[in-house]
């Protein structure tokens, strides 16, 4: 299979060592699992791609999106079958998030990530403090609004987080979950189920820009995609079986790592 992938023009696997391919596979498995539970798999996957010899940052971002869309599709289907998320909120939110992600991908080719990373770190710290100090938040679904106001806030969340995903990416699922918990009143599990559908749309929106631009490394993306599917399926089943408290704990861990990772980028940059 590896020989076939390396024969593809622009596969991103020309002259690549087997050990590097195996590391990409492991990163894809771990990223798929994390994304399915709380989001933030890009923390694992994107840095690994940037270690591949000869890959550019934009190629890594595009290939990361292709790998992620396989995983988010798998986890979204698993959540839908087992947790039955409210599609009346999730679908409009996903459509608007797709538009936001497409716009963010356009800006990503023009704006250095260092411009927005400090803002993201501050936002993540606020999210971590809120989640840690309010242990009951996200335990049960207690919707704060209904009707048009509920959908309007959901749309604003989708647009904002979708734009961020196209522009930078890491932690998108985490931002979606905490926004739905804080501003809409969903439990962590219910928010996670909807976040997979929205995250699928944000990945698709970014890919709509990256595919015709020629930045995508097809072979590498396919390897990541298959790995993400396996990780996403396992992660979604675990999240559903273990419930909101499990998702909350993993969420706190992932957000903490995000703060350290992006904070280091800001300091080092």
Automatic annotation (TrEMBL):
Sequence similarity: Belongs to the 4-toluene sulfonate uptake permease (TSUP) (TC 2.A.102) family.
Which InterPro entries does the UniProt record give? TM_pro_TauE-like, TSUP
| Entry keywords, A to Z | Cell membrane, Membrane, Transmembrane, Transmembrane helix, Transport
Can you name this protein?
A: Probable membrane transporter protein
Respond yes or no to whether keyword Membrane is given for this record. Answer: yes
Membrane disposition: Multi-pass membrane protein
Q: Name one GO cellular component term.
A: plasma membrane
Localization, per the record, is: Cell membrane
* Membrane-spanning intervals of the chain: 21-44, 90-111, 118-138, 175-195, 215-234, 246-264
């Amino acid at each position: 299979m590896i020989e076939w992938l390396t024969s593809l023009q622009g596969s991103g696997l020309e002259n690549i060592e087997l050990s590097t391919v195996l590391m990409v596979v492991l990163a894809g498995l771990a990223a798929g699992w994390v994304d399915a539970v709380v989001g933030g798999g890009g923390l694992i996957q994107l840095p690994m791609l940037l270690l591949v010899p000869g890959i550019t940052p934009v190629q890594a971002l595009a290939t990361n999106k292709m790998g992620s869309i396989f995983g988010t599709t798998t986890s979204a289907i698993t959540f839908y079958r087992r947790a039955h998320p409210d599609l009346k909120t999730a679908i409009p939110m996903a459509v608007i998030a797709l538009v936001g992600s497409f716009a963010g991908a356009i800006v990503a080719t023009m704006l250095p990530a260092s411009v927005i990373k400090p803002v993201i770190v501050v936002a993540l710290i606020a999210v971590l403090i809120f989640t840690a100090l309010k242990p009951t938040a996200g335990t049960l679904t207690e919707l704060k609004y209904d009707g048009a106001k509920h959908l309007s806030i959901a749309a604003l969340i989708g647009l904002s987080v979708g734009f961020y995903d196209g522009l930078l990416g890491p932690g998108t699922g985490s931002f979606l979950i905490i926004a739905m918990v804080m501003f809409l009143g969903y439990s962590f599990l219910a928010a996670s189920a909807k976040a997979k559908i929205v995250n699928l749309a944000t990945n698709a929106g970014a890919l709509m820009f990256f595919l015709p631009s020629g930045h995508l490394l097809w072979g590498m993306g396919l390897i990541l995609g298959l790995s993400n599917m396996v990780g996403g399926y396992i992660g979604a089943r675990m999240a559903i079986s273990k419930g909101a408290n499990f998702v909350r704990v993993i969420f706190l861990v992932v957000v903490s790592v995000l703060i350290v990772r992006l904070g280091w980028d800001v300091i080092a940059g």
